[in-house]
Amino acid sequence: MLKMKRFLLARRRVDQWGVSLSGVSSPLYFPFTVAIAGLFSLAGIYVAFSRMRRLSHHMRSPFGFVAAYGLWALTLMALRGDLHSGNRQLGFMILLLVLSFAAPGLCLVRRPLRMLVLSARLGVFLSLILSLWATYVIGLGVDNRYNGGGNAAIMALLVTLGAIVATVRVKDAPRFLPNGLQYLFIAAVPVFLTETRAILIVLPAIIIAEFLVSCWEWAPKVRRFGLAAAAVIVACLAVAPPIQAMVMQRFVTVYDYYVQGSREPDMISGDIRLVMWKSAVQVIREHLFNGVGTMRMFDYLKAIAGPQAPMIEGFHHVHNFILQELLANGVIGLLLMMSILASFLLTIIRSPAANSVKRVAVYFFFSVFVFGLLHDPFYHELVMSTVFIFMAVMVTQVRRWKARVRAGSPVAAFSP
After folding, report:
1. What single-letter DSSP state applies at residue 414?
2. Does the keyword Ubl conjugation apply (predicted)?
3. How many domains does the chain have?
């Protein structure tokens, strides 16, 4: 017993730095977040199963829907005979079920949301420096999109998620990591260098929304000045040659190719997506209830694609998380997945958290959702770990705020 107490006291000092390391490493595309999320989850499994009351409490949270979703997917795999090591989906479902216990593993972190927010701010700053260094010093992004050492689209999503978390307003913020919208603007640079279309739409929308919210809190004269200054800055950015060149390359060419019928732009990635999506819709119509699983998914798609089948050879997902989920686990799987999101957002919105915390929860999954319409973020270990660390931190922090309200603290909007 004495050794256990010493271990827990040691963890109390270490765990908060684990949360901080995950907040720093995720916007940098470093894999530490996966290991940290795994360690917290293993500790959380021990905590959750130590008492039936704790396990019941955990299953009544949004993570109960994660368990339901994971068990549904595993049941379908068992019925198809796909429970073997060669099934990529099996590994991700096991990882998902393990990561769903990260929240109980945070029991010794005193202020988890504060640690995550401040470390995310540092991570976004470092991501800016690393992207500029990689692009303009060693030339990794001169002829190609900046990718952080991996996938350019995933890089854009991770730095955006880090910037979103960084905008949560904390009490007594450090002088060198103050509250503000600057983290969204800083993240815009590496996102611009990745040239990821989905995030290039999402991030400006979030910046505009947060700027308007901030303007509403200013005095009328300051608000008018701020709006005028923002209009001038947007106009200047619109005529900047690098931005015009990127818009032409990543957006106007899509319009010219698919609407105007021009055959000059190279739209092979778009053509591949269209082949997969059209084939996926037909497969889904025939297997709406339980899908076909990921092991045989592309065999079905290639059979329908016919002469265009070689275009989708070698792919593992269809670059659209809704179609992917319908193919893998059917409409019930998609409903269970969306219930995780709905339950989480309702938990945060109904909590006594400050509005900045609630907006961040919405922005976070809005970004993941839009990104998922052109990619599949849920079959990437680092993205999945980042999402579950965020959910675990938010749910843990909200529970503690609710406990303070029940204990007699004034009902107010709590900030980390």
Report:
1. B
2. no
3. 1
